[in-house]
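Task: complex structure prediction.
Instruction: return structure tokens for all chains below.
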Amino acid sequence: MHANDQTSVSRAQDGPPAARILTFQRHPAQYKHWQLVVEAPLATLTMAVDPLEGAIGTYELKLNSYDIGVDIELADAIRRVRFEHPEVRCVVISSAIEGTFCAGANIRMLAGASHSHKVNFCKFTNETRLEMEEASAQSGLAFLAAINGACSGGGYELAMACDHILLVDDRASAVSLPEVALLGVLPGTGGLTRLTDKRHVRRDLADVFATRAEGVRGAEALAMGLVDELARPSEFAAAVSRRALALAATSHRTSEIEPVELAPLSRAVSGSSISYEFVDATLDRTGRTVSVTIRADSQPQWALTTARELDDLLCHLRFNEPELGTLLLRTVGDPALVLAADATLTEGAPTNEQRETALLWKRVLSRLDLTARTIFAVVEPGSCFVGLLAELALAADRSYMLDGLFEDHEEPLPPATFMLTATNLGPMPMANNLTRLQSRFWGRDEDLVAAEGAVGKALSAEQAMALGLVTAAPDDLDWDDEIRLAVEERAGFSPDALTGMEANHRFAGPETMATKIFARLSAWQNWIFIRPNASGPEGALRLYGTGTRPEYNTERT
Amino acid sequence: MHANDQTSVSRAQDGPPAARILTFQRHPAQYKHWQLVVEAPLATLTMAVDPLEGAIGTYELKLNSYDIGVDIELADAIRRVRFEHPEVRCVVISSAIEGTFCAGANIRMLAGASHSHKVNFCKFTNETRLEMEEASAQSGLAFLAAINGACSGGGYELAMACDHILLVDDRASAVSLPEVALLGVLPGTGGLTRLTDKRHVRRDLADVFATRAEGVRGAEALAMGLVDELARPSEFAAAVSRRALALAATSHRTSEIEPVELAPLSRAVSGSSISYEFVDATLDRTGRTVSVTIRADSQPQWALTTARELDDLLCHLRFNEPELGTLLLRTVGDPALVLAADATLTEGAPTNEQRETALLWKRVLSRLDLTARTIFAVVEPGSCFVGLLAELALAADRSYMLDGLFEDHEEPLPPATFMLTATNLGPMPMANNLTRLQSRFWGRDEDLVAAEGAVGKALSAEQAMALGLVTAAPDDLDWDDEIRLAVEERAGFSPDALTGMEANHRFAGPETMATKIFARLSAWQNWIFIRPNASGPEGALRLYGTGTRPEYNTERT
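Output:
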């Protein structure tokens, strides 16, 4: 949240900002809101949000409040450290503003944003924080929140995503979650879940904290478990440095240091297509469908580049193409090329590049699972749904595999094969911490064993059907009609009902902090965001900063 | 769903029905929609919904479609079997209508109901189905769904709550979840969760099934795992009987047969109070608060009657008093009386009455956890928050315990004590399958051990604070102000944000099918119910049966 300023009239109060195309490629040299300084074994990521550089409107990003543009840079910086700075073992997140750490998501931005933008903004920021926690757990990259001033809402949620929270003890700086009390919404970036499930704050104290707009300072914050350490202002810098080095010393990051540059992606966009080096998307606005094709290649960085391209495409579709409700996933190329790339990710002791590439695939596949669009995999002759790319089919809501050849092609492509590898058995868990195979065969252990037993076998459509790895296997005669009807049918359903149904079906079995964040907290927030109490003309989000109190509809559900 | 009938014009299409006070006490002799026939070891519960006896409007309940009134009778029947018919070991659920099992929730009812009613209707029906599953797991009471005809939506969800689904194989009768395809909403009674997590239907087949309005029949339903058994029409009755007796034979229900009559509750309602034998509620409409007081007593059935009264009160408040957002829970009386009742529930080999009374308390406490109202426990001198009643304080979002005496009372009541017993350590798990103490101290094992170590000790406010069992312990000087300010503050917050926040904080740690149903599926449904695509004038719920197709806003979130 940022301070109220009556002199700054934001267009957001008058209606949603004009649609702008959001892009997701960034480079530290062009960051507008963050400074990344690497001094091994530390990297310091300093938040210095430019108030005049809002990404989707004319609101002012005061007091390190943020919008999607700020978070896209943060996500980029974390990936840079993971790939380009393997010598780093601890990332310090701090603020360049005296007395302010971060004011959280910008309220005028939220008040003016469309429902779809709000939900996707929260989803993206959540994914970035989960990537921080993954980097900590799996890459040995610890995160230290160095809170040198007021830290509220999303600012405190960012801190909670770190391994250690150091708060300046200056009798003024507080951590707070003022969303419920002041804005009539929930902390949308995992705040409530991390309070109880990560930081183990007792639920009644969590209730007190999350309804106290002014937050909690110093010793009380430490006693409640909201922060891990305090330092006086005069000792703050030294304490940050000492703690960061201590965290770095506990890192298990491998010592070899071969940086991998994240080169700019090649990307061509037209009205109806988006083309990358290995990923193409064709947009059918009438049918509200996107056809995505991934091409196998022998290029050494194929797996890394493809993951980055797919990630960029998913973000683009989420934010810029909300009406395209169905993704059709296809692959083309020689399965042997994919198997070769796949093997480097799981065999032997991985290099930093291999480990980070595998973790990036894990994250991108998770982004796919959490994308609120129908996903159908289309497994045709000439395709390469093997290993890493088979995981795309397992992420789909349905998969169609052609049984045989396209008979009327002059030189028919080879029949589709489906092959599982070690990649499908562990390194790419979903948010529920199960593999996609475990999730698929939840409660059917024999089917799971049979499918896992097929690792390394090139499966025909008939075999894949028998193992339950694909949903349907029509032959050439029925193929076009079956796909077309399924896609048309989907386009006729309520997008809301589909979003809710898919979010339920995709995650069988146990839950984790991540599924709670996405499936429970986000679902509630989704509801709250659309209620007049938050987003109506007299709602708390819209009235925030005007001096007028919202009049709530007081019915409880 | 019921069949379309253009000749029946329902008032529900023109707006919400006039507010009616719903009551929750029923007796089999007065059932309007079910027939309960007991022939030990079986009970047969036959659905024969009276189309003209809708509970909240003028819609017609055709084809065994149901509304809250139908489900209240179902819930009553299950409790009757549990308490009044201990000789029963299997309940057969069947239909009196030739060719129709159950058409699910009535669509015109849903189209006309308020958002709050829709959400609470779904919550109540879910609780009833979970009670069936509890009776099966813990009371040895198996449930058999004898599906003799079309079984759609909530009808199939009712079947999925049973232990065994027997479907007539007549080439016509299908099971189906047509909500997504026809109504733009989700199956709201656990359908999606039970498909994958209970029946282990593969997620892509679940996707196909839950988008196929016409459903699945016979052998295909059996192959997909949607039903457990098929029987031809001529053999259906014999198959039901054989299967019911086989299920009864596996029951572990104890053989002693002492029925416990569920006598009518004594209940007096005025504009500002509801009084039962042991439970009183005072309604403060200005402050939007309900003060609930439970009185200890030596009456032998005190625990059973109190649970029934509290349950009735919670249902009353949910449906009839949506604006009263905060519950203040108080107890009065001699703690020794509560301890005596408490001991009978957990000590030694329980009788059927003791076991069922404990299970009823478990269910009522779960109903409290899932009630979308703020819950504060107020622990004052003269109170008896011990054992069973201490569980109420542990269910609260916050608990306030007075430290000392009310000094200015002429004959001050004894200082409040708080005491844990064996009842707090296991028999009353929450929906997340943790005790409220485990949930409270999630991730803080030492605190949990310390609290559990205090079993049997009468704790002062200071001691309860030190153990983290209460939130705050003001003294007499601060008491009134602190309670008043907390209550007033709560009344000023957005009810939506509070509902979302409390639903998150109450369930730390792992998730179960039940928490997924309530926290994930219901949260999505909550959102979908309020979106114009479902509930707007052109939404699918409102247009269902008119012949006009809804025009959806196609934006995906």
